[in-house]
Please model this.
Amino acid sequence: MEAFRIFIVEDDVFYGEMLRHHLSLNPDNEVHLFKTGAECLKQFYKGPSLVSLDYSLPDMSGLDVMKAIKKENSEVPVVIVSGQEDISTAVRLLREGAYDYFVKDEDVKDRLWNIIKKIRENLQLKNEISYLKEEIGRKYEFRKVIKGNSPSIKQIFSLIEKATKTNISVSITGETGTGKELVAKAIHYNSPRAKKPFVAVNVSAIPRELIESEMFGHEKGSFTGAITRKIGKFELAQGGTIFLDEVGEMDQNMQSKLLRVLQERELSRVGGNDLIKIDVRLIVATNRILAEEVQKGHFREDLYYRLLGLPIELPPLRYRGNDILLLAKHFVDEFCVENKLDKLSITESAQQKLMQYAFPGNVRELRAVMELAVVLTDTDQIDESHISFNSTDSSSNFLLEENTLEEYNRKIIRYYLQKYNNNVLHVAKKLDIGKSTIYRMIKENLI
Amino acid sequence: MTPGSDKIYRLNKLIEFIGDDTASVTNMVGVFLHSTPDLVDQIRQGFADNDLVKVGKAAHMLKPTLDIFGIDSMYDTIRAIELNAKNMEHLDQLGDQINALSNELDRVYAQIKTDFPTA
Model:
């Protein structure tokens, strides 16, 4: 652990020496003693973790030394030690930013000891937070979290990379489960804002009457139930990124308020008068086509253009070809590692089954399917019997493939032929089409 | 190491502060013997020059040291000197108070030098 550097500024030689002795009892403390304010300020570049400052020094007042310290580094805690109790001086010093104020008596050592303990704990927490933030950043290195080799996903990588380099707003569209929030996080944690907060808000999950207060905060007593001041999501994201998911669900009233905040770059809390400057990067996501919502008059055009920024359209999984298998393997491996299971392989037939499915729930659905498959298998392989699709609507799943009518016809005939052991007459009768049509399609290798 | 009850100083507060370690205590006793006579001189000199600010400042600085050294007989005297000098009150008593302080501290120094010949 790095030494805890304490500066004692004390012109009373005896008292200063005594504090040095006392604080040096902890070998982690590195104690420096100065007799004047000027000496302390000269050595300030050494970066003390705490300054214990006598209020009456021969060359400067304790207040002036503290002000000079705070000017250099406002984070350094300064404790004022005074020869006598003086409430008004204490209040003034605390207002000016002193960490604590106490009188030279036998309690000083315990108070200093407690303060050091508290400051060390705070420092440790701060270090842990900054370490964890770096960890999160590493975790969201986007090529690690967004897997795929398909041309469509490679294009997404290139867009993410562009988004990380500037502060441009980003609008992400894509079906449910395509990874919109993951992309938003990847942009944030790879941008210069990575060490500041990433705040995600699901607009559709917040009741209409609460959304303004959720987004911009409220002052105590601003409405029934506002028993304390609340800081809104925009303020929480100060310096970082706010991710507004399902932004298309926002009502018109809130749209105007959001537009104003984005234009002015300042907000006031509900029931408050103060204007608060905000510096927040905006990423929005929607699974509705916002442009259509604008045409229908459901979404403000001016807000739409402000939000649009860099548009990133995430492709549905079914258009990502072999990415399906790559992701399936990735999810299986990940789940096995997390649950300390042996490695599993995916059989050819299981792979085929995966490739033929439309995945209306996209990557999220694939993950669930593969995790279930890992649980179901009793061998070191996942075969087609372990792959079960539980899509809520199989017909819409079929339609999601967006084939041509001709392709749908072929698919249907192929399905019936398989089902009825290639009995063309029976299939023709079932589908109410001529048997010659089926024979022709077989002959032309269309089915 | 702690002197008996006939002593006019007590080191228990100091030991509580810096730990019961002979070398550290001896070192602090040395600091006391070196630094406090100068403060007493400043009080004397200030009084002689009618510089009451100087008297007040030196008394203010000496006060916690005397407390830590357990010189209880001077508890009220040092406070009176500081307060009288600061408020410019009871100046007729100030000379006697300073003499009492100086004499008592001379006795303390003598005792300490006997108890800590190496300090």
Observations:
- The interface with chain B takes residues 11-15, 17-18, 21-22, 25, 56, 83-84, 104-106, 109 of chain A (CB under 8 Å).
- The longest helix of chain A spans residues 108-139.
- The mean pLDDT of chain A is 88.
- Residues 151 and 321 of chain A are 10 Å apart (CA to CA).
